[in-house]
Amino acid sequence: DTAVVALALGRLGLGADAVERGLAWTAGMQSRSGGWGAFDVDNEAHWLYKLPFCDFGKVTDEPSADVSAHALEALAPESRYAEEVERGLAWLLAEQEREGSWFGRWGVNHVYGTGAALPALEACGVPSGHPAMQRAVEWLRSVQQPDGSFGEDIRSYADAGSRGRGHPTPSQTAWALLGYVAAGEADSDSAKRAADWLCSEQLSNGDWQEDHYTGTGFPLDFMIRYHLYRLHFPLMALGRLRERLAA
After folding, report:
1. Predicted confidence band at 154 (pLDDT cuts at 50, 70, 90)?
2. pLDDT (tens digit, 9 = 90+) per residue, 189-203?
3. Is pLDDT above 80 for 111?
4. How many Cβ atoms from other residues are within 10 Å of residue 41's Cβ?
5. How big is the chain by its Cα radius of gyration, in Å?
6. Residue 136: closest CA among 169, 106, 79, 98
7. What is the 3-state secondary structure (H, E, C) of the chain?
8. What are the two backbone dihedrals, phi and then psi, of residue 61, each rounded to the nearest 5 degrees?
9. Inter-residue contact 75 to 26 (CB < 8 Å)
10. What domains does the chain contain, in order, with CATH numbers?
11. Cα–Cα distance for residue pair 247/237, rounded to 1 Å
12. Predicted pLDDT at 221
């Protein structure tokens, strides 16, 4: 959250002191592996799961691709954090799945992780022709639905065959569109179809309807419905697309 707030304030040119403090804190939360967890540093002691009270959910906070991506996207423009960014980028690239996606710890699931990772790679200066970018785009295209949308069921946390498969949602379609834009695909037919679907699904009052869970508490234990996901992410994706096409 801190990284995303710092990123937003920085782009708006607001709260310079708050941005600097937020970035410094984010950099200090980097784990030795190079990635970032959500709440803690180097919290990866798996022996904790052997204790008798560990019968539900996660008690560790290992670095995740989605959190690390947000941290990198915020830190990358600042040259004073070049060392942290270099280590984080190496970690994120190593976390890419064989088929081209990234795991999503706090959102469902590989569409979320991939939609977070690609903007981070772009922010770090990774070119659109880089193999990691190309593999991710190919994976997104392979799971895009005929109407241009994206969906992923929570079963993908247990079944690899369900990755990128499920009932379409505004959040997940927006995550994929963010990935397309970051990977240099803003003017592609794939991005246009995703954007057209988002626009066609918007309600007359400006809202989007999203009945499926797209937020993750503990994978396979409990899911979360963040009610602003269906608004925030489509607006972000469409805004970035428009900005990129106008450039």
Report:
1. very high
2. 999 999 999 999 999
3. yes
4. 14
5. 18
6. 98
7. CHHHHHHHHHHHCCCHHHHHHHHHHHHHCECCCCCECCCCCCECCHHHHHCCCCCCCCCCECCCHHHHHHHHHHHCCCHHHHHHHHHHHHHHHHCCCCCCCCCCCCECCHHHHHHHHHHHHHHCCCCCCCHHHHHHHHHHHHHCCCCCCCCCCHHHHCCHHHCCCCCCCHHHHHHHHHHHHHCCCCCCHHHHHHHHHHHHHCCCCCCCCCCCCCEEEECCCEEECCCCHHHHHHHHHHHHHHHHHHC
8. -135, 65
9. yes
10. 96-246 (1.50.10.20)
11. 16
12. 84
Q: What is the pLDDT of residues 55-110, one digit of tens each?
A: 656 677 899 999 999 999 999 999 999 999 999 999 999 999 999 999 999 999 99
- Which amino acid is residue 94, in one-letter code? A
